[in-house]
Each structure stands twice: as C-alpha cells, then as structure tokens.
Amino acid sequence: MTTPARTWLDLAVELGEEFRIALGDQLIRRPRPGLEKGREKPLATTSELRELLDAHVWMKGVGLARAALEHMRVGADSVPESLLRQAIAAAGLPEPELQISLVPLDPYSPSGDMGYPRIKLVIQYEGAHHDDEAQRLQDARRDRAFRDAGPDPAA
Q1: What is the pTM of this model?
Q2: Residue 155 has pLDDT above 50, yes or no
Q3: 101 and 136 in one domain?
Q4: Fewer CB within 10 A of the terminal residue: the chain, N end or C end?
Q5: Are residues 67 and 20 in the same domain?
Q6: Which residues are bridge partners to 114 per DSSP?
Q7: Domain range for residue 126?
Q8: Given a cut of 70, is residue 153 above it in pLDDT?
C-alpha cells in the first residue's frame, strides 16, 4: 500500500499533463468543513511533494511530476475544476483565482469556484450533484448573492 502522494508519483508516467496536475490539485486541496467528515488536512502539501520528488530523483516520471507540481494550485475542489482552470490558462487568459469568497474572511460567505475578483467575474463548475433540487436552490441563492453585490463603487 502506498500513500496518495506516492501513488501520484507512480502514475506520473501514465497520466497526461492535465491529469497529473488535476490529481495533484486533489492532493493539496483543503478539505471542505462539513462536506468531508474525518478529514481536516490536505492529503499532502506542496512541500511534502517536493520532498518526495527530491527523495526519488532516480525514478521514472519524477521530472513529469516536478513539472506538474509547478502548475498545481490549492483551491480546485474537483478534477473538472482543475481541468477548466488549465483550459482557461491554455487559451491564453490569465489564470483565474480559486475559491473566491464574496465577503473575504467571512467563513459563511458564498464562494465561487474560480474567477477574477478585480473585474467581478465568478465561474462556477457545476457537476452532476448540482442537479439535486436542494443543491439547485442553494446554488441559486449563492448566484443571487454575487449578482446582488453589483459593481464595486470603489473600482
């Protein structure tokens, strides 16, 4: 049995670049309180992954994993979010910020998956679980809160 981080390294030669990054994003992301019972810390940190790579310099795929690590970001809550972020950057747009809170420092504030706070653009990736009626209502409240915030008068 191996750790999630070591499994990522082992798979580095098998996965394409986008999926090496997306899987890595899942290792370093912060668990969401209330959504993931029993887990409060990421599966690995970028520092731990760097140490792992430094300890396995001889291993096939370590260069690919090291390159992926440079593009991994904390904040992508799912593989599709990671892939969307990468596609946006590959299209030549600036890399979006992740997990944008409507009211920074407020733990109960609605948040968006990614976007550009300076220009008040929030992007939501809504997977299949967003088809649930209760989730759709919650999403609508979140979206309305962002719309109601309107343009920033200080901008």
Answers
A1: 0.86
A2: no
A3: yes
A4: N
A5: yes
A6: 98, 123
A7: 96-155
A8: no
